[in-house]
Please model this.
Amino acid sequence: MQVAYTPAEIAAIVGAQRTAGSTTDPIRDIASLTAARAGDLSFLGNAKYRAQVGASTATALLLPLDYTGEPRPGQVFLFVENPSVALAKVCARIEAALWPKPAPGVHRSAVVASTARVDATAHVGPLCVVEDDAVVGPGSVLQASVFVGRGARVGEGCYLMPGVVLGASCSLGQRVRLQPGVVIGSDGFGYEFVNGRHEKIPQIGVVVIGDDVEIGANSTLDRARFSRTVVGEGTKIDNMVQIAHNVIIGKHCILCAQVGISGSTTLEDYVILGGQAGVGGHITLGQGTKAGGQTGIAYDTPPGSYLNGTPAIPYLLERRLQVLHQRLPDLFKRVEALEKK
Model:
């Protein structure tokens, strides 16, 4: 980091409910409990690391309200309801200081169609392309080499990192954040086998992204065959996720890295999919469904399901089967011994 805060400033940022200890040393970096040194801020975000707090040499620590230890000399404890959330507030302040929002305006190397509408408070960076009838809303930022297709819409306060593609007629709500290389509105993967050939089915639908959605680097969201592919408000999508045509994703879902969702599938609100989970086509995952990493789901799930494995089965059953699976070699030896008698 190239910024510095006093412990008092950190306490104000996080809204510390109380403090213990004191120091005037500035905070210049953030580190884990074991790696932190003088001048660092650390936090207890997981109860299993509680024993590490006493040995930490961090200058300031964000701790839960129920922590009972005492700080070292020259160390300050800042007590908050949720240390992880508190650290996020500090990081947001640092982010704003290190990477200030670009000034409004259109870079001279950008190509903006005469019929496009770019709000006077928006920023369009170098080598961007904004096609006919596209809209870029107030306060939105398009970093270098962003492409906004014909008739596409970027809502208010969006942030599009370098290399993002927003296809024709697709739309972003407010405060959408797209990491480098995201592609929204690529053709859905649709073909019919006719006379010995795979004939392409035109994909003429759109992609609609709700407010406060964040999408990680190099993820792809295909346009619908017809109608819409939808991502609901507040959903967070990790890097390298593939969402096929006509998928409907509800509000506040979490999709971890390398998840793949096949066409015409619906995820109701608050679904969580672990890394590399795969979801078949034309099914519905009920509200609050959770699936562990690499789970393969091929059927509808009722609300509140917790799944693991391929094919997906209830999580606790899958764990039991894994334990039994490890005992199979010994079981076979016992069976062989019995057969020899």
